[in-house]
């Protein structure tokens, strides 16, 4: 079996990076603020880790509530130009006030972006969102039609997502990436899929692995075997050398010898360090990938900035994660127990990328 642990040179880099990360933790500058503006969705994807449905039984957060937090509890403490506000869901485009939300956020000086499945991104909607200051978009695109439509459970989802991608890649001055949740079925077809993306002019592609929570928990068709996981990382490594399209693996987890070879930087979980989220029910947490209860407060009870400043201890000091599989792991000093989204409500690790290798 190939060595999975990082070599000496990489360990020196990891040690240096750990010091930089510690400085970032101490600084605790808010740089990304997610607003989970809805849990409604126009799809019901098989791999969805969130609770979104056509009718999730949870009302969208009124825009005014989010703006109040921005105005009273964020803007006085930050330079808005340095904080990226990202609208996430559910599917953000089901909100018909998204343009107004974007315009209000932009009027306050914040750059803003969104994560979308692309299904409802018509040219008219895209133009209106750009006019409202949209600066960045991530579009989900999980593979060839049979794979994407199977996962998304909608026969039109592939065509619509591709239409959305075509709009986005042609747009000057817009930051974007295409994001792919890689299933076992896609691993042998990644080279061909990269060719398709290249032909469409895509320059930025981020790959995820599907984490077994939510609807994906009991669906074996979505997972990669350990060998496929390694193959995917090898594919990313090869693609990065080839150029033409910037390919990277998502933050997700520590990868040992693959560190810096499948991403531009060493692994880090920025949740709660420089990333905060306001969930649809007002809960204040780290990043929106976290499904467990790491909520540190709620905008309807607490002052956001006070929570960010004083209650984010579990995000900033991960010693609590040194238990179970992580207790004696020699990589803990670099990994700190993996991404926060990999833990359950009790803080137990659900999944270790490094040990899969
Ligand atoms: S066991 Fe824990 S500390 Fe070790 S690599 Fe896995 S997640 Fe990281
Ligand atoms: S919680 Fe997970 S997805 Fe979020 S920043 Fe950390 S590693 Fe990345």
General description of the model:
- The protein has 357 residues and is α/β, with parallel strands linked by helices.
- The chain has a single domain, classed as TIM Barrel (Alpha-Beta Barrel), CATH 3.20.20.70.
- It is 33% helix and 14% strand.
- The chain has twelve helices and ten strands.
- The chain has a ten-stranded mixed beta sheet with strand order 7-6-5-4-3-2-1-8-9-10.
- α8 (226-242) links the parallel β6 and β7 (246-249).
- The protein is globular, with a radius of gyration of 20 Å.
- The termini are close together.
- The mean pLDDT is 91.
- One iron/sulfur cluster is lined by residues 251-252, 269-271, 275, 286-287, 289-290, 339-341.
Order of helices and strands: HEHEHEHEHHEHEHEEEEHHHH
CA radius of gyration is: 20 Å
What is the architecture at the second tier of CATH?
Alpha-Beta Barrel
User: What is the CATH H-level superfamily?
Assistant: Aldolase class I
Which CATH C-level class is it? Answer: Alpha Beta
Largest sheet: 10 strands, mixed
| Inertia-based shape | globular
Number of helices: 12
Share of helix, binned: 25-40%
- The termini sit apart by 9 Å
CATH topology: TIM Barrel
**What structural class do you assign from the helix and strand content?**
alpha/beta
Could you tell me which ligands this complex binds, including any ions or cofactors? Answer: iron/sulfur cluster
Total beta-strand segments = 10
Which band does the percent of strand residues land in?
5-15%
In the sheet with the most strands, the strands line up as 7-6-5-4-3-2-1-8-9-10
Low-confidence stretches: none
How many structural domains does the protein architecture include? Answer: 1
Average pLDDT, to the nearest integer?
A: 91
């Amino acid at each position: 079996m190939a060595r999975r642990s990082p070599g000496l040179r990489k360990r020196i880099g990891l040690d240096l990076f750990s010091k930089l990360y510690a400085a970032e933790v101490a600084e605790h500058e808010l740089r990304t603020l997610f607003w989970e503006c809805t849990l409604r969705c126009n799809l019901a994807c098989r791999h969805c880790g969130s609770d979104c449905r056509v009718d999730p039984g949870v009302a969208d957060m009124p825009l005014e509530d989010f703006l109040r937090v921005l105005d009273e509890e964020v803007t006085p403490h930050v330079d808005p130009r340095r904080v990226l506000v990202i609208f996430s869901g559910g599917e953000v485009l089901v909100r018909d006030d998204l343009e107004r939300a974007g315009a209000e956020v932009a009027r306050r000086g914040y750059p803003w972006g969104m994560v979308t499945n692309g299904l409802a991104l018509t040219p008219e909607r895209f133009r209106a969102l750009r006019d409202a200051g949209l600066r960045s978009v991530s579009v989900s695109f999980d593979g060839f039609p049979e794979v994407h439509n199977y996962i998304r459970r909608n026969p039109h989802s592939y065509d619509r997502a591709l239409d959305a991608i075509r709009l986005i890649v042609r747009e000057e001055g817009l930051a974007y990436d295409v994001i792919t949740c890689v299933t076992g079925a896609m691993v042998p077809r990644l080279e061909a899929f990269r060719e398709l993306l290249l032909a469409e002019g895509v320059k930025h592609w981020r790959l995820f692995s599907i984490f077994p929570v939510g609807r994906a928990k009991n669906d074996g068709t979505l997972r990669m075997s350990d060998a496929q996981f390694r193959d995917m990382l090898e594919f990313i490594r090869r693609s990065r050398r080839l150029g033409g399209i910037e390919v990277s693996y998502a933050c997700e987890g520590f990868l040992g010898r693959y560190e810096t070879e499948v991403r531009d930087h060493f692994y880090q979980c920025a949740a709660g360090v420089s990333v905060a989220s306001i969930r649809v029910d007002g809960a204040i947490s780290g990043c929106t990938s976290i499904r467990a209860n790491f909520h540190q407060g709620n905008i309807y009870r607490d002052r956001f900035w006070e929570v960010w400043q004083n209650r984010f201890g579990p995000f900033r000091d991960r010693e609590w994660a040194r238990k179970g599989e992580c207790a004696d792991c020699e990589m803990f000093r670099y990994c700190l127990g993996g991404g926060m989204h990999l833990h359950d409500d009790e803080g137990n690790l659900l999944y270790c990328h490094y040990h899969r290798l």
